Amino acid sequence: NLNFHPAGRHFLQIPGPSPVPDRLLRAMSYPTIDHRGPEFGALGRLVLAGIKRIFKTQHPVVIYPASGTGAWEAALSNTLSPGDQVLMYETGHFATLWNKMALRLGLKPEFLRYPGADPHLPEAPGWRHGVQASLIEERLRRDARHAIKAVCVVHNETSTGVTSDIAAVRRAIDAAGHPALLLVDTISGLASADYRHDEWGVDVTVSGSQKGLMLPPGISFNAVSPKAIAASRTATLPKSFWAWDEIIDMNQTGYWPYTPNTNLLYALAESIEMIEAEGLEQVFARHQRLAAACRAAVQAWGLEIQCADPAVYSPVLTGVLLPQGVDADKVRQVVYQSFNMSLGAGLGKVKGRMFRIGHLGECNDLALVAALGGCEMGLKLAGVRVRESGTLAALEYLGSTATRQDRAS
Ligand code: PLP
Prior knowledge:
- Residues 50-335 form the Aminotransferase class V domain.
- Its cofactor is pyridoxal 5'-phosphate.
- InterPro entries: Aminotrans_V_dom (IPR000192), PyrdxlP-dep_Trfase (IPR015424), PyrdxlP-dep_Trfase_major (IPR015421), PyrdxlP-dep_Trfase_small (IPR015422), SP_NH2Trfase/AEP_transaminase (IPR024169).
- By secondary structure, the protein is of the alpha/beta class.
- It has helices at residues 22-28, 38-55, 68-79, 93-104, 133-142, 166-175, 226-234, 244-251, 262-278, 280-301, 328-339, 365-381, 390-401; strands spanning 11-13, 61-64, 85-89, 108-112, 148-154, 156-157, 162-163, 181-185, 204-208, 220-224, 304-305, 317-321, 341-345, 354-358.
- Pyridoxal-5'-phosphate (PLP) binds next to helix 3.
């Protein structure tokens, strides 16, 4: 019923799109300008320079008017040729979708998997762990002829709430003495979880607008290394719209070869300003702290956190596994209908087994407390027994770790 408007604001607690701050909504409402005119060039140069600081790169970042899936395709089609072998790693649903895309593009992906079992999630044990870099190293060492052209991993697996150690993957590739490109999806990690494109030696980083950057969906990114650009000159997968060369060329003066997403670029400029005013490292610390509070709540409820390895807990979202026999989608439905809050669904192999709480973007202490309150009431209403109050546990954590900001200065 599109005419039904419950009072107050909707709690969009999915792990992206994340709530769009009012400042960005206002910026997006400015008039659309001539994308070949002088004002636009200034905007283009501003966002292209600013987004490099967010990726921590000195090299070009290509901005597409597309969702993250488009930027995935751009990363593959610019660097690879039909029939190329690529090494991918099944961390969850998004890694699985990228693998499917590689197949559809005519590549030969090999999908590495976590080898262990898990009593709480027998259907997808690997979906509770990050990339095991040693498996990548071992596989690359066996590829003496260097048939594998790229290693593709997801940095923040949005379907599970598990991150992967990208620096360790780089070290694994180097230890094997292998020339494969390193392609990384941090669609849901950028501007929320520590990420360093240049320092970690990533060749293509794929990201999107609707997560840590707090924009609506609609633009996405490829941060590219000189080695990736060199590969794009000889790679032969068909590419036209996605081709980096003309875009990078025209970006020198702040323009694009086609009509860019002007109003989303206004929002991007505003977003970069907000993130840098808070401080990128402070943004990461805020996400870590909110994630710790969320996990304190899940543990107090007596439920399992989907990520089984504390070293790689996601600062962006928390996956909550429900006891066998409980329908997680029923819990989400009760929360939605009773408290006007959207939670992330279990995707693919974990559909109905878990739900996801997003704590990214502009999320703060009180927003998280409200979200956890909604989850707790929803769990009880759906008949899930909780051990003790997770909301209170989060309050304790947040209260005891709060810092005061001197707002006058
Ligand atoms: N990769 C990851 C890790 C994601 O979280 C998403 C979307 O949630 C995608 C890829 C796909 O991006 P999009 O839905 O913007 O096309």
